[in-house]
Amino acid sequence: MTDPWLRRFHPADDAPARLVCLPHAGGAAPFFHPLSKALSPAVDVLAVQYPGRQDRMAEPALRTIEALADGITQALLAWLDLPTVLFGHSMGATLAYEVGLRLEERGTPPEAVVISGRRAPSRLVNDQVHLQDDDGLLSEIEGLAGTDPKVLRDPELRELFLPALRADYTAIETYRPSPGPLAAPIHAHTGDTDPHAPVPDVQAWSAHTRGDFTLTTYPGGHFYLVDHAPAITDALLKLTTSGF
Prior knowledge:
The protein is α/β, with parallel strands linked by helices. Helices cover 37% and strands 14% of the residues. Strands 1-3-2-4-5-6-7 form a seven-stranded mixed sheet, with helices on both faces. Strand 4 (84-89), helix 3 and strand 5 form a beta-alpha-beta unit. Helix 2 crosses helix 3 (91-105). The chain is globular, with a radius of gyration of 17 Å.
């Protein structure tokens, strides 16, 4: 794979369906490496790599959801030969929704969109984390318990990931949703104690699809999916191999 937007860690050429995984703010494609390994060879998994991090460090990080969704959509056009499901966590969930809308507009719709740990677009709040200083931004990330605190406190590593992290928070906190709803079904998953995605706000995704809607909750906070990886893997396997 040569497209800078996509990583295919475990190619599954004979799989009947494809899962596209979109990471959270500050995240990167390798976050989904364990999921890709667990689903292969039954599902062909693509993980999205946003600009401004890891092997795309030399590229400027994008600061709007629209620019990110446009880039991801363009990259996926060469990979729509199989039934495709979009799966995004946190900021990635919003991107999955926006990419889904763009693919539907092009006449190449996804089979389903799977939302994880993100309130519905109709439940946006006026967060201002992207305007805080570096310490404030890092304190927010540390509170989500999804990043090793040693990484957050290492001065050299901070210099590397802070620009992309701030760009991601700028994108998600200034986002205004595109007109919807999706035609594709939405399947939502969330932790029952996630302060950034209260269950009623996740339930509100039901208004953003003309298809079926399901909601599954798990014990845990914003990164519940790490502790419940087997259950998430099983849900995605069943969805992508169900024959739609």
